[in-house]
Design goal:
The protein is of the alpha+beta class. The radius of gyration is 26 Å and the shape is globular.
Length: about 725
Amino acid sequence: MSQLSAGTTDPALPGGLLADAWSISASRSGLEALLAGGFPGLVVRPLGDAVWLSVGDPALAGLAAQARKERGTAWPQPLVSHYARYFRDGNRTDYEGLVATRQQRLTRAVVMALLAGRHADVDVGAGAVADAGALAVAPGDASNDATGWLDEVIDGVHLLCEQSSWSWAAHDDVFTRTGGVVPDKSLPYLDLGAGEVAAQLAWTDYVLGDALDDRAPGLRRRIRQETTERAITPFLERLDWHWLGLEGDVHNWNPWIHTNLVAAALFLLDDPRLQAATVARCIEGLDRFLASIPADGAIDEGFAYWWNGAGRALEGLALLEQATGGALDADLPVVRQLAAFPHRMHLGGNWFLNVADGPARAANGLPWDMLHRWAVRLGDRDAARHAAAFVSGQPDATAGLGRVLHALLDGARLDQVRTDPDPALLNGVPLDQASENGIQTPPLVPFTYLPSVQIMVAREAAGTQQGLVLAAKGGHNGEHHNHRDVGSVVVAVDGVPLLVDAGQPTYTAKTFGPDRYDIRAMQSAWHSVPAPFGLEQGTGKAFAADVLRTPSPEDPTLQLALGAAYGLHPEQWVRTSSLDREARQIVVADRWNLATSPGNLVKANADPLPRATPDVDITYLAAGTVRLGLDGSATVERAGIPAAGIPPVGTTSAGTRATATQLAGDGRGLMLRWEPAAAVVLVDEWHLDDPLLAGVWGEKLTRLRFRLPEGPSAAGTFTLTVEATS
């Protein structure tokens, strides 16, 4: 194991974007000087600062209602039996769910302690998950006194300090190192969970400060002790953490953990040299992440993981800039591209193109305010419009304490933007021109192509979700959180995907183990891709698509050679996916030449390909309700898809969420036609018992497998035409 203490010299590390931009300022000596004067530039301010008077009642309503319901009840208690389940039967949600619930309760308690006494009562805001009785507070009511909420906070903080492991059981190496299924505090594992706890304690200590020790003397010392032992020391003393990216594989853990450690170092390390050394190491890690991002800003893990990868990096960069009084300026070309990625993946409503382990619907609690601040800072009008349309105005504790604190303060800024747009505040981004009937709307850009991941998203008409959207993907099967989806297509109508990617099921031990591709959602057999000889796609970078025709805004056509994804010669299978805006239709055309028999096909490692059959299938996965016609046609209707996923999102000029009634679409579906019309259609229903998948798609997904009627053929073509129903 490599060791490095704060007082030794760093090993030689390659330079990067931040190293070039910041130079000596990002060194230990430079940081020690920059951080010496405290953090007056931070947006989030400590207890008692007048900035908290700007927090509007609607923004606090949901958090306050839940906080008052749970105060005085027993805290969630993750037990050894919950922890051990991962090692016994692969279940990771029992333990992680209790840990998350505990931390969310602490987040709400911190907010209440911070804002206690600000008002005599809190009104119910539009869309708040509460009733008026839960929020009504009489003058002098104990539920609104600061000391009571501080007691709630110190109980939650102490529970975290006492928790045997801050890491999640699925990541902890206690079993591989000791054979035990009991957390071992003497062997701290620095993972996503540990980073989250360290950051939550850091933000708690920063905003409540001396009030914690006034109420519970010694608590702040305990916070520092536990964070140093469980996070800071392992970070500085070990260079074998896989998420550091030292061996070239950089993924979302890198910015997620490094950004949380930046907060921990800034707020909890009192030794200036140790603080500077820790922040410098975090900058090196973030630099490796940014260096791994392609020029087009694509994230191969997709939209959902953008928030806990690229989004975390943007948060870390903003925190570093604020803490150094602007000396560490992160306005870099790669940052501009990263900020544009979410709106480029937007299908409509709260639906997004989901590749890899991601749901098709945007999660609650995403920090859209963070993206909006960056977009305005960068002058990216489309990114700013998109983020503004999704800002709910009511922070969700699932986002984490740091994100909640920023969101509470950002509400006042966004309200000012909406009611009195100031060019100085907007950096040239005229958001007031991007609304319809008082509803802030996303830009719904007409075309995106990201060559690094071979993803195209093409919309029938710019600026409206009415009409068709085609998303087509090439790439390879060695991507992070990979699904075997090379060549897949997704088709949405009026903002709702109906030819779909199933997305992320509930994580278990199997998800990231050797049997990952036994999970149906990960298999090419359950994506909208071909199956030459009935084959599954292979796993690894060699199983990839070649781009034969690059799309353009005027001609959104992506042509891919897919053969290599199955161990074939690349051009033995060619798929052309195109959107014809004038004809208002999407065409996916497959042609193949499979002269080689399946028995002669081999994988890259020379093992025979499994399950080869004489058949050639072309598969499409549909959500909703599928009805087959008698003439080489079928319809796919929305019926069965949970209603929560259908309405477009938007934010009114008053900052409240628009309702489904205000924004409900016309409910159109898709008409599918195919040639040859005589193709045999095999229908398989996937009844969804996984809560994550069912929450997005409803009770089932339907797989259509098209097989040519004349039986096996060395060469052939198949064309699917997709139009919106009338």
